[in-house]
Amino acid sequence: MKEFAIYTGLRAALFAVCFGALWLALNNWLTIFPLLLLALIVSSILSIFVLRAARDRLAGKIEQRAEKISHRIEQARTAEDDD
What we know:
mainly alpha
């Protein structure tokens, strides 16, 4: 699943960018744990908008695979009924 790897990589990169920016901006006021949590929240919200195209491609690929599996199951069921 190439699309899954791409989307996961983009999510990780977005988190890293958010963490880096927040660390540069808030390093003097917050420790590492609150910075990590804040970066997680910010990157999650941003990913809704920024990674929409990658998420849609991933969802389309998952839907195609599910349809193929459903079709195979239906073929097997039909072949079983014919016997």
